[in-house]
Amino acid sequence: MQEIIDEFTNYLIKTRNYSAHTAAAYVTDIDDFCKFFAGFNGSDVFVGDLSHADTICFRAWLANRQNRGLSFKSTARALSALRGFYKYLAKHHNIKNDAIGLISSPRVPKKLSKAIDASDVADMADAIRVIDNTEPWIAARDWALVTLLFGCGLRISEALSLRNSDIAGAPGALRIVGKGSKERIVPVLPAVYTAIKKYTELRPFGNAPEDGLFRSVRGLPMSARMAEKVIEKVRAYLQLPDYVTPHALRHTFATTLLSDGADLRSLQELLGHSSLSTTQLYTKVNMSEIMDIYEHCHPRAGE
């Protein structure tokens, strides 16, 4: 079994261009099912046995995950991983199972993110200067990161994957490679480039064209966790709510554009969403804000 799973992992990374992190998550979900299936059958599971799993077994697995307190989102992802594994087995090893196609994914509640108030984003600049007052280049780095997320709507992984060559020559736009290796062009505001330029001029290392743009204190590529800690420190200093995260900066970019009249298709391209339905979530956020204003301000809202 392990040999087949390793083979599937290589397929995900080399053929489907999945990240190692995503492939590892798929394997974890597949292992979870295989362990459950072994207990369900009362015997060890071999690859060929997977063709005999029926709808009762699959539904029992989903129920077992719920009993363990795993979220609907986690279980939906696990079922998707298992479906992908079965498709691979059918195509490459002639091991087929039609029952998996009869199982519906659990409905995942759509959680609407919250935008950050524009004044709070502006206050972050002063907060960063105070927090990093002994290392001006670190302060410049952190502010450059904030302006890039807020000004260009990038995912944190996309911002941290930028290289010096990507921002050379004051580009008016960035070519971003997002999820699923999908490319998009994102305009760069002058204020964003100014913040990045100040940071690169102060940075003591990592100046080669192919070096990563954002560096740690020790000169290593900055990790997502390091970026999260930057926002956590700012959030604590300004006493902002817990929803203020790197992703909230991207979310604020989207809701700001939508409020100012951007159409959904353009916003979809800027954010790199593969599906318009994902972008449409922002219209729900805007409507909730509109209803909140109505309920608090309209003279007849309470009638």
Verbal overview:
Helix 6 (136-152) crosses helix 10 and helix 11 crosses helix 12. The protein has twelve helices and two strands; from the N terminus they run αααααααββααααα. It is mainly alpha-helical and 303 residues long.
Quick synopsis:
With 303 residues, the chain is mostly helical. It has helices spanning 2-15, 20-41, 55-67, 72-93, 118-131, 136-152, 156-160, 190-202, 224-238, 246-259, 264-271, 276-297, and strands spanning 173-177, 183-187.
Helix-strand blueprint:
Blueprint lengths: L1 H14 L4 H22 L13 H13 L4 H22 L24 H14 L4 H17 L3 H5 L12 E5 L5 E5 L2 H13 L21 H15 L7 H14 L4 H8 L4 H22 L6
Antiparallel strand pairs: 1-2
Label this structure with key terms.
single chain, 303 residues, mainly alpha, two-stranded antiparallel sheet, 12 helices, 3% strand, disordered C terminus
Percent helix range = 55-70%
Trace the largest sheet across and list its strands: 1-2
Shape: elongated
Q: What number is the mean pLDDT?
A: 84
